[in-house]
Amino acid sequence: AVVAAHVAAGLPIIGCSVSATAAAELERAAGFTRSTGAPAMTVARLLMELDGPYGGLRPGTVVVIDEASMIGTRDLSRLAAHVERADGRIVLVGDPDQHGSVDAGGVFARLCADQGDDLVRLVENRRQGDHVDRLAIDDYRNGMITDALQRLDDADRIVRSATAGESFDAMAADWYAARSTG
Q1: How far is CA 181 from each of CA 21, 141, 159, 168, 177, rounded to the nearest angstrom?
Q2: Model pLDDT, residue 101
Q3: Which helix (H) or strand (E) holds 130?
Q4: Where do the H-state alpha helices sit in the chain?
Q5: Cα–Cα distance measured from residue 53 to residue 68, given in angstroms and rounded to the nearest whole number
Q6: Are residues 14 and 27 in contact, defined by beta-carbon separation less than 8 angstroms?
Q7: Is the Cβ–Cβ distance between 134 and 125 less than 8 Å?
Q8: DSSP β-ladder status, 13-17 and 62-66
Q9: How confident is the model over 63-112, as pLDDT tens digits?
Q10: DSSP secondary structure letter of residue 92
Q11: Between the CA of residue 44 and those of 47, 77, 79, 150, 174, what are the distances in Å?
Q12: 150/176 Cα distance (integer angstroms)
């Protein structure tokens, strides 16, 4: 809906994420290609394009960063400089309680904490379609780790192995079975 509103208003909007998988999912869900012709991409690719000889954002561009807890502070700063030059804005989407950036990070969690009651929060899990997964994640987020693991174990979602090699074999077999069935 946000992308559609920007497209209808003639305002450029770009989507990105740290991982290529998250960027592809963001594009599939939101369709950023409708705005600029460019699909959602990784932050690294966007920065490479912006830093290049023909880089730069169109005036007023909105940049949506998904999984924002994972973006490094230096990359976010570089991206913010490009957005500022275009008189645009950045929308950070993510979970401040999720694991942070591999690079020097932490700015997203800090920005969220600074917002206090003004922080916009999504309260419904829309990512996991399976009921057991949703309940386990709710348990985990509420600090009930044992309950979450027990819920997953009761649903045969936990694989026990004697060795790391057996675990890797089980993961590969599960992946192959899922891939074979689409």
Answers
A1: 20, 31, 20, 20, 6
A2: 59
A3: none
A4: 2-9, 20-30, 33-36, 43-51, 73-85, 107-115, 131-141, 145-154, 164-180
A5: 27
A6: no
A7: yes
A8: parallel
A9: 999 988 888 889 999 999 999 999 999 999 887 766 655 666 667 777 77
A10: E
A11: 5, 13, 10, 39, 31
A12: 26
- Name the one residue in this structure whose structure tokens are 């309260």: 123
- Type of residue found at 124: E
Residues of the chain whose pLDDT is less than 50? none
3-state secondary structure of 59: coil
Q: Is 98 left (phi over 0), alpha (psi -120 to 50) or beta?
A: beta
CA distance 50 to 43: 10
C-alpha closest to that of 88 among 45, 37, 35, 41: 35
Which residue matches tokens 């990070």?
Answer: 105
Radius of gyration of the chain (CA): 19
Residues counted in the chain: 182
Local structure of residue 58 (DSSP, 8 states): P
- At position 66, the amino acid (one-letter code) is D
Q: What is the dihedral of CA 76, 125, 19, 166, to 10 degrees?
A: 140
Encoded tokens for 79: 């991206």
pTM for the model: 0.72
Residue 113 in tokens: 């904490």
